Task: structure prediction
Amino acid sequence: MCKLFAISARYPSTVQLSLKEFSRHGGLSGPHKDGWGIAWYDERDVGLVKEAFPAAASACVRFIQDNPFATSVAISHVRKATQGEVALRNCQPFVRELGGLWHTFAHNGDLSGIERDAHMTAETYRPVGETDSERVFCALLERLRPLWLAQRPPDIESHLQVIEPFAAELRRLGPANFLYYDGDALFAHADRRFQADGVIRPPGLWRLTRRCAAVGELSAAGLRIEARGGEQEVTLFASAPLTSETWVPLARGDVVVARRRHL
Result:
């Protein structure tokens, strides 16, 4: 299965070491060699870089590590193809516009039969590639669209009333860990994933939250924190712990929200 990583911070931070560790899973220390991508936010806009070959061999990854950008929210994905050929259109994260904001999505799992599931269809949003992950994203946006037409952005509770039952439907189809950012809040849904012994079971995602009071590095987490005007707080999500710190495993079915204005 694929690897997921996300950061949500109160003030802009860099993801330099986390990307480096992530790239090792993308073809060196792991089997995830079928592409990679990262989306990061700069106020209302989003930058997106994807490639359909191993992150570990990528000059682009090396450039990002040597020239880290500052962001409050980033989502990254390293792909092990299960559905769809190895091609750029099937690499994640996926990005779509809704309500005047860029929405970003990445998924880890294998949802067999989703193309035949009548509940996972969308009229407004159509997949470009062949992955189950992009089909899920389109279906999720279709369900959220009425909320965004009524309120921009919708409140968190309204979001959860859509996302939680949607995630429960996905879990019946297969492992369905995902990260979704709507330009306002980051939603992390945990399910199951392949563990080191080859068995599919929880946890599907882990979380780490760190605080610091001044500009400097969280050396254990490998992030340089820029506390611009107040105490910094950073929440990380990953498919597996990336550092020696105490990460918290998420239970199957958990939907955790990180909102940079209210971390």
In short: Residues 132-150 form the longest helix (19 residues). The chain has a mean pLDDT of 85. The helical segments are 16-25, 59-66, 132-150, 156-173.
